[in-house]
Amino acid sequence: MTSPTRAALALAILLAGPAAAQDIALAGRMGDKALLLMQGRSVVLGVGQASGSTRLLRWELDAAVVEHGGSQLRLRVGAGPSRLGAAAAPSGARAIVIPVGPGGHFMTEGAINGQSVRFIVDTGATLVSLSRAEATRLKLDLSAARTVRTQTAGGVAVAQMLPLQRVRVGEVEVYDVMALVTEAPMPFILLGNSFLDRFQWRRDNDVMRLERR
């Protein structure tokens, strides 16, 4: 948790630099409230509260999840500001670099159909895989999804398979990526081979590098 002193220092640093009119950054956390820098001014929001079209939805560990204009952003203290209403990352980018995280896992922020998500790389997963709860949050249309049976540690389970319009990691966006929606809860979305196979990838010590084929 960030102390008021650290939050004030972070805010001062942010204010010292150039702030675009539509930038948003997390300057600090005070209990369940987020200290945000938006459009050159500081705003304190509790969970569920809004300022204009920007609302604080929830906290996920040290990240504040905010909604603006139908899109969600995950903000952390010390991270660069995110641009509200920014266009999708250009699909012409070809490289992704993912540093190793806690427990030796490669985790990264990204987006599905323009909605912010958190991925964990799973080279053993055939498809990008997510829970039904996450599919509901992302407003995925499962009405035309194909029902399949999958083998799990607990036996055979029913899941649904459908294509995702857009999957973005870093500055790279890939279209028409097949995904599996499971009934079981999942803390992260598995970034499986339906995405990874579009790349040549390798691990260099504590970094995974993906190059577009």
- From the alpha-carbon coordinates, what is the Rg to the nearest angstrom? 18 Å
Strand content: over 45%
- Residue share in helices? 10-25%
Major sheet: 7 strands, mixed
* Low-pLDDT windows of residues: 1-21, 86-91
Report mean pLDDT, rounded to a whole number: 79
| N- and C-termini, Cα separation | 42 Å
Category by helix and strand content? mainly beta
Work out the helix count. 3
* SSE ordering: HEEEEEEEEEEEEHEEEEHEE
Overall geometry: globular
* Number of E strands: 18
Describe the protein in words.
With 213 residues, the protein is mainly β. It is 11% helix and 52% strand. The chain is built from 3 helices and 18 strands. It has helices at residues 4-16, 132-137, 193-196; strands spanning 23-30, 33-38, 41-45, 50-51, 54-60, 63-68, 71-75, 82-83, 95-99, 107-112, 115-121, 128-131, 146-152, 155-169, 172-182, 189-191, 199-204, 207-212. The strands form 4 sheets. Strands 10, 11, 12, 13, 14, 15 and 16 form a 7-stranded mixed β-sheet that branches. It has a 4-stranded antiparallel β-sheet with strand order 3-2-1-8. A hairpin with a 2-residue loop joins strand 5 (54-60) and strand 6 (63-68). The chain is globular.
